[in-house]
Design a protein that fits this description.
Elements (H helix, E strand, L loop, with lengths): L4 H9 L4 H5 L5 H10 L3 H24 L12 H19 L7 H11 L2 H21 L8 H70 L1 H27 L6 H14 L3 E5 L7 H22 L3 E7 L2 E6 L11 E4 L6 E5 L7 E2 L5 H8 L2 H12 L3 E5 L7 E5 L4
Parallel strand pairs: 1-2
Antiparallel strand pairs: 2-3, 3-8, 4-5, 4-7, 5-6, 7-8
Length: 403
């Protein structure tokens, strides 16, 4: 078993040779014809050696060269076709027209070793060559089977190769999409997690700087909290990277109760987060965290109200509202990955954007903040609506089907 292990390992690593290996059985008529019609032992050995060389070169081509799915074919592969064609020509000295039965091997190999447009030319070339040879020797009608065989084998393998390429491209696109989604997910989590913590750090640092002369003890207390928040930020980074970061609504509300007064923002909570269904708690906690961060960093607000009611959560501040350079109205439909943003721009018309995915939404929103809230709502079968209401400020509304 130990001696056979390297061979078994090699075969296991070259399972892609199974299909071309099966077709080698069709070289058997070449050997049979040589043994039957060549009485000279030297001629028999030479003819059989040519058949073995043909089969070995044919298989070795699949070992040396990968299928050129995403790039050009290796130019050295043309030496393989030159070698196979030369061996076929030498076999004709022993087997006559039967040597043309090796052309289907070259036509099939072209489907897997060349780009498909070039494979078409090669397949047509071998077919035309077989017709020309038979016509020149006056045996075309008697051996018409060979050109037909070449065409049939080529078309079958061409279709099979096309399926392989389609599947490979589909897998590649799926892999790229998965990587893109993972990058977006990581970027969103890092932004949502660190954005809030770093905002609190900035507020604490500013407060400590104001108190350093008038109230040193309070300033030291703020700096101690600042240190704790920085440690929390490091923990958040590790948690996001390892996928362990979780949030819950009561914790986020408590955090806002601590941070908003320090930024001179009055926070009011109406209703209870206990009314939120369990399946939406985690996503809404992230959304509330980001909405609160936006109020702290960008709104210029003095008041913020978080409301929980049956089937909805709203966050409303009395700040500056959505900046003019952004679309002033963002809406997403639950679960279908589509959103639209409605805005009058100059007050004279209305632009509507339909069929947006998360990437398209990001191009409208200009960042991961609003994008994160919109996409988290979509991903959790909720509707998100972010707008500047007539009363001013910014209103974030998240709705779900009430149970």
């Amino acid at each position: 078993m130990t001696r056979l292990q390297p061979i078994i390992t090699w075969l296991g690593n070259h399972l892609d040779l199974a299909l071309p290996s099966i077709f080698l059985v069709f070289l058997a008529p070449q050997v049979s014809y040589i043994l039957e019609h060549q009485t000279n032992p030297v001629a028999q050995v030479a003819g059989i050696a040519l058949v073995v060389a043909f089969g070995a070169l044919y298989l070795w081509a699949f070992v040396l060269f990968a299928m050129p799915i995403f790039g050009p074919a290796d130019p050295r592969v043309w030496w393989v076709f030159a070698g196979l064609t030369a061996i076929s020509g030498l076999l004709a000295l022993f087997n006559g027209p039967l040597a043309l039965a090796t052309f289907p091997f070259q036509a099939a190999a072209a489907c897997y070793l060349l780009r498909l447009p070039m494979a078409l030319l090669v397949g047509a070339g071998y077919t035309a060559a077989s017709v020309a040879i038979l016509a020149l020797t006056g045996t075309l009608l008697d051996n018409l089977f060979f050109p037909i065989l070449i065409v049939g084998v080529f078309l079958g393998n061409f279709v099979l190769a096309s399926v392989f390429i389609f599947d490979a491209n589909a897998m590649r696109m799926s892999s790229e999409l998965a990587r893109t989604q993972e990058r977006d997910h990581l970027a969103r989590d890092v932004h949502d997690s660190l954005g809030h913590t770093l905002t609190v750090v900035a507020i604490k640092a500013e407060l400590a700087s104001r108190l350093i002369d008038t109230n040193p003890d309070q300033a030291r207390a703020e700096l101690a909290q600042l240190r704790d928040h920085i440690r929390d930020a490091l923990t958040d980074v590790r948690s996001v990277v390892t996928g362990l970061k979780t949030h819950d609504l009561p914790t986020q509300i408590d955090a806002l109760h601590c941070t908003m007064p320090e930024a001179d923002i009055s926070l009011t909570v109406v209703g209870s987060p206990d009314t939120v269904p369990t399946q939406h708690q985690h996503a809404l906690a992230w959304i509330l965290r980001e909405a609160g961060t936006n109020v702290l960093r960008h709104s210029g607000a003095t008041q913020c109200t978080v409301t929980f009611r049956d089937g909805a959560m709203t966050v409303h501040d009395n700040g500056d509202g959505i900046p003019d350079q952004l679309v002033p109205d963002y809406t997403t439909d639950p679960g279908n990955g589509n959103g639209n943003g409605n805005g009058n721009g100059n007050g004279n018309g209305q632009d509507q954007m339909h069929g947006q995915d998360h990437g398209q939404i990001r191009s409208q929103v200009h960042g991961h903040g609003l994008t994160g809230m919109l996409s988290r709502a979509q991903d959790n079968n909720m509707t998100a609506h972010i707008t500047t209401p007539p009363t001013g400020g910014t209103l974030v509304t998240i709705e779900w089907t009430a149970s």
